[in-house]
């Protein structure tokens, strides 16, 4: 959603808005640009996080699955509106960025008024989804309000900027729990929050290396050394919180939580090692979602990890099957 106009005082003179004719020069590509505006790859944030609440739901019901799917749709629309609004607000600063200058609004392929209409349409669809859905959707307006505050003020405050964005991921998980009616797992929220911080700090570090503080004023409060230290702290917090969740609150039961924790430890460590290797010894890139989804090693390790946990969960809930398989 559009929340604030980015100031043009940072980083020198800015170009004026492109003539409206430039946005319509290639009309067949307009649909592609509209899709790019909403970052479809980032839909994975809702599609991966919100179904986590279903893990603890026993038994699964059609209502619970449908509620999570509907809630995921609501958050996808909310985040899409936020992306469009932020692209409108940041279009001047984006034109100075070597990658973001190619975004549809910054490049002038989609006119600013078109972005406003698009954002309004997304918010209208969001209102329809929330209005027709069952249950409570309070995390959605909180997420939108948080992004208003982020775009106006919080994005310019070092450290507060990454904490604010990380809270958006926590709200997604909370909405998933509301949809299932299950009790929220506190250690899971800590894990999601710390992993989100880990990815966001890695992103800030790469932005420092690639473009410096000219594009994002908050980067003036960061340094590569500070980012390296924060990566270490958040990696430890993510590891510890995740293992405690598996041992205590995950749906493996008191007899098998320790087993899940032990089996997960090498996978969790290697996943963190791999991410830190990408960030500190390679070219991590400023888009953590794209980096993780395109890294075959990370995808392979996480897929194997999930398979091990899924097998453990099945054997936990079906002890007869466990006795038949295990001597």
Automatic annotation (TrEMBL):
UniProt-listed Gene3D superfamilies: UbiA prenyltransferase
Swiss-Prot/TrEMBL keywords: Membrane, Transmembrane, Transmembrane helix
Classification via CDD domains: PT_UbiA_2
InterPro entries on file: UbiA_prenyltransferase (IPR000537), UbiA_sf (IPR044878)
Transmembrane region(s): 69-89, 110-130, 136-154, 159-178, 184-201, 222-246, 258-276, 297-318
S-adenosyl-L-methionine is among the record's keywords: no
Tagged with keyword Transmembrane: yes
Domain of life: Bacteria
Pfam families xrefs: UbiA
Subcellular location, record wording: Membrane
Membrane topology: Multi-pass membrane protein
Record's protein name: UbiA prenyltransferase family protein
């Amino acid at each position: 959603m559009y929340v604030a106009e980015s100031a043009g005082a940072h980083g020198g003179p800015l170009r004026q808005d492109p003539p409206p004719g430039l946005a319509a020069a290639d009309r067949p590509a307009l649909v592609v640009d509209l899709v790019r505006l909403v970052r479809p790859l980032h839909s994975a944030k809702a599609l991966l996080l919100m179904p986590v609440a279903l893990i603890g739901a026993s038994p699964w019901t059609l209502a619970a699955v449908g509620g999570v799917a509907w809630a995921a749709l609501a958050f996808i629309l909310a985040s899409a509106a936020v992306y469009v609004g932020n692209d409108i607000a940041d279009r001047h600063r984006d034109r100075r960025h070597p990658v973001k200058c190619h975004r549809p609004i910054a490049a002038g392929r989609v006119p600013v008024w078109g972005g406003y209409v698009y954002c309004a349409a997304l918010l209208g669809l969001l209102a329809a989804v929330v209005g027709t859905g069952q249950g409570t959707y309070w995390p959605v307006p909180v997420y939108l309000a948080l992004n208003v505050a982020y775009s106006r003020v919080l994005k310019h405050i070092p450290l507060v900027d990454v904490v604010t964005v990380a809270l958006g991921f926590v709200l997604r998980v909370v909405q998933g729990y509301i949809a299932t009616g299950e009790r929220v797992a506190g250690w899971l929220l800590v894990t999601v929050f710390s992993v989100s911080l880990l990815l966001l700090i890695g992103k800030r570090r790469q932005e420092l290396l690639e473009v410096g503080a000219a594009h994002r004023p908050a980067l003036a409060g960061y340094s590569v050394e500070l980012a390296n230290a924060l990566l270490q702290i958040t990696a430890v917090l993510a590891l510890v919180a995740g293992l405690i969740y598996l041992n205590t609150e995950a749906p493996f039961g008191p007899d098998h939580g320790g087993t899940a924790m032990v089996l997960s430890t090498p996978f969790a460590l290697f996943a963190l090692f791999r991410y830190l290797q990408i960030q500190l010894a390679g070219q991590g890139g400023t888009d953590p979602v794209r980096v993780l989804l395109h890294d075959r090693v990370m995808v392979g390790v996480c897929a194997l990890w999930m398979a091990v946990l899924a097998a453990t969960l099945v054997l936990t809930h079906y002890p007869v099957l466990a006795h038949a398989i295990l001597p």
